[in-house]
Design goal:
Distance between the termini: 16 Å
Oligomer: single chain
Helix content: 55-70%
Order of helices and strands: EHHHHHEHHHH
Number of domains: 1
Shape: globular
Number of strands: 2
Largest sheet: 2 strands, antiparallel
Strand order of the largest sheet: 1-2
CATH superfamily: DhaL domain
């Protein structure tokens, strides 16, 4: 499983342009737990990021793509989620400086960097009912596979893990952000950030 930068750019643009289809679902989930702005954040950020990627020069390296994506996503609709995702992507860019191809190892390094930065900046951990509750287990699934496994099989396994984890977040009480304010009333609702990660994985798979 290895993709060139040009392939990654095309796939990213396609996935990001598909994300607005989930905006209403994410808005409803977020409205049950917080201020309901996640749908707007994901829609505006995704479209801005897709546009930023398309405007990069042909010779741009993978790190440049991640930097452009992170900056565009975080500034399109300023929010906590946008800042966390943007910061995570900037951290991920440091793991692939100068790279023009990425495989399973690079994907894992980028994902771990994103998760670590989100955990650090958001002062959150697994079980706090955040995007980490789907992101980290799906990365664990990626790491558990042997090298050379078909990309489709990897994605299917990661999506299956993320789906299970999103359902599991409904049983948790939110501990971070505005969602923490509703305390036990947050139980029974899936985490919107974790859901957004699941929808991105599905969009990437196509």
């Amino acid at each position: 499983m290895s993709l060139s930068v040009s392939e990654i750019r095309a796939r990213l643009i396609g996935a990001l342009n598909a994300m607005p289809a989930s905006a209403e679902e994410l808005r409803e989930l977020d409205a049950a737990l917080g201020d309901g702005d996640l749908g707007v954040t994901v829609k505006a950020g995704s479209l801005a990021a897709a546009d930023a990627i398309a405007k990069l020069p042909p010779e741009a390296a993978l790190g440049d793509v991640l930097i452009a994506t992170g900056k565009a996503f975080s500034t399109a609709n300023p929010s906590t989620f946008g800042a966390l995702v943007g910061g995570g992507l900037l951290a991920a860019a440091k793991t692939v400086v100068g790279s023009h191809v990425a495989g399973r190892a690079e994907a894992l390094a980028m994902g771990r960097a994103v998760a670590a930065r989100i955990a650090e900046r958001g002062k959150s951990q697994l079980g706090d009912k955040t995007v980490l509750d789907a992101l980290v287990p799906s990365l664990d699934t990626l790491e558990a596979f042997e090298s050379g496994v078909d990309e489709r099989a990897l994605l299917d396994a990661m999506i299956d893990t993320a789906q299970r984890q999103v359902r599991a977040t409904a049983a948790l009480q939110s501990k971070k952000g505005r969602a923490a304010w509703v305390q036990e009333r947050s139980i029974g609702h899936a985490d919107p950030g974790a859901t957004a990660w699941l929808r991105f994985l599905q969009a990437w798979r196509g």
